[in-house]
Amino acid sequence: MGALGYLAASTPPRLASAGSAVAIPILAVQQLGSIGIGGALVAVSLGPSILAAPLVGAVLDRTRRPGYLIGMAGLLTAAAFFVAGFLDRVPLPLEFSSLAVAGAVAPFYMGGLSSFVADAIRDQRRSFAYDALSYNLSAVAGPALVAAMAALLPAQAAMFVLSAAALLGAVCVVAIGLPAHGAREHSVWSTTLAGLRHIFGHRPLAVVTVSSSLTQLGQGGLAVAAVALSIDRIGSPADAALLVTAFAAGSLLGAVVETARPTRARPHVVMGVGFLATGVFTIAAVANLGMVWTVVAIGLSGAFTASTSAAMLLLRNALSPAHLRAQIFTVGAGLRASASAAGAALAGSATGLGGAVAVAAIGVVWIVSAALMAAYPSEAPVTQEIH
């Protein structure tokens, strides 16, 4: 088990999840003529994640064979996406039910799998840089794959490819083998409660959790705000995709650099400085100095997200007792996913104020996240040594 094995296990299901958020609405329009149903299906494929996360984490902390459970989650996701490909033939209640199952098991391969990366790669800083790379690759490649296929083939084909990706991840995660966390002396319920108490009662971890979740409120609203800004500037949403792509490209480039040369500064400092830089460059993009300036500024704002994600994951690991680690990772990932969804909704309601205001507000959110990191105790006690 090593870096390549971990990437092979973690990237395909995350890619499938990211791609489905684009493919499902397109499929709904093509097969049912309804974007509304597509949005509802995406929501139900994401919504159960935050509810299931604490239980998923507790189970992963207790099981002797976590790889098999994560593999089963990938298998269920693959089945749900395969069924979704037949949207015009399968009854809608069954479609909603199968995608809800996919949403409920998503924490297994999102935050849950992240809790094992330090076991897969010996250097902890590099291990979480690889995990950040996995997330960034998935976030870029999933939608890009769907967009490329949609130009040539029906969206149904994209759903089948995403199903195959989830299946590939399931096979790989079983093949690499994952060590047990070994928390079997208490019940699942008591373990779940202990994990939630630690997340919100342990000040350093609470600061990391709240600050990093708040950033997703801003990041989740970027696509919507970019559409509004594009309409303000050129009268159409045509440039919105370019802005979102610039942010994703900056994030991916930052992830590659972070993986090749992990930042050695104190993780909480990396988070604070990185959040601040992202916020400043996002606000700078509002200046009406031409599209090149806006694209470059948005790209630079994304370039800091990989190092901050790696630092966040490193701290989450260091501040988590071994028997609660998976639960803390899954709940943290669930909170970030929920914040991202809320950010999109808030950005949509704020677009009436203008695209520039919406984008600037996103930058302010990142700066507030940086300010929150000032509450992190400089000598915070940790339960795992940071290498």
Spell out the blueprint of helices and strands.
Elements: H1 3-32, H2 35-46, H3 48-62, H4 66-84, H5 92-114, H6 117-120, H7 124-150, H8 155-176, H9 188-201, H10 203-220, H11 222-234, H12 240-260, H13 267-284, H14 291-303, H15 305-318, H16 325-350, H17 355-372
Helix pairs in contact: 1-2, 1-4, 1-5, 1-7, 1-8, 2-5, 3-5, 3-9, 3-16, 4-5, 4-8, 5-16, 7-8, 7-12, 7-15, 9-10, 9-16, 10-15, 10-16, 10-17, 11-12, 11-16, 11-17, 12-14, 12-15, 13-14, 13-15, 13-17
User: What number of structural domains do the residues give?
Assistant: 2
Number of helices: 17
Mean pLDDT: 83
Structural class per helix/strand content? mainly alpha
Topology, number of strands? 0
Second CATH tier, the architecture of the largest domain? Up-down Bundle
Summarize the structure.
The protein has 387 residues and is an all-alpha fold. It has two domains: 1-175, MFS general substrate transporter like domains (Growth Hormone, Chain: A, Up-down Bundle); 196-377, Growth Hormone, Chain: A (Up-down Bundle), CATH 1.20.1250.
